[in-house]
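worker-3 :: picked dUTP diphosphatase
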Amino acid sequence: MKKVAQFEKVSLKQFLGDWIDTFGNRSDHIITEIYKNIKLPIRKTKYSAGHDFFTPCDIRIKPGDSMMIPTGIRCQMNINYVMLLFPRSSLGIKKHMAIANTIPVIDADYINADNEGHIFICIRNYGDKELEVKTGEAFVQAVFVEYGSADNNKIDAKRNGGIGSTGK
Ligand SMILES: O=c1ccn([C@H]2C[C@H](O)[C@@H](COP(=O)(O)OP(=O)(O)OP(=O)(O)O)O2)c(=O)[nH]1
Ligand SMILES: [Mg+2]
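worker-3 :: tokens ->
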């Protein structure tokens, strides 16, 4: 399989800031421990297309609610590839977990964003029981797909953010 990308952790400083912004104030010590235990996404078999992302913390979501998860992960990709995120089927089917924005698109130039390209994943509980996912459990999977353009590559604008950074 051709190598087209490389996962990395964001810096501890970035992770601390994003974690506090997302969940409110918690002790730096606890967040540092969470950061240390973050594992890079991996494929589980030789021909799996999906690289499983692992949850950085215990997750509990009430029916109908969603939760934004700072993964601690960023990704260097060949510029002609895009990363698409999908739920792991087992959690989608057995636990009624969905991704809030359906199929997140992680652009190759997101790595240049002012948040170091930190990948956030928002999951939703569409079942009628509390959704529980334990720390370190594989919950979503990343697939790298080659893409083309319809504009002769005339766009020069550079990405410097994510999730709404390019405006309306
Ligand atoms: O679930 C997501 C979706 C997106 N992103 C990041 C990576 C992506 O490259 C960037 C922009 O995503 P998208 O283009 O889907 O959102 P947008 O609302 O159009 O934001 P922007 O204006 O920044 O392009 O935000 C995430 O971390 N998680
Ligand atoms: Mg966009």
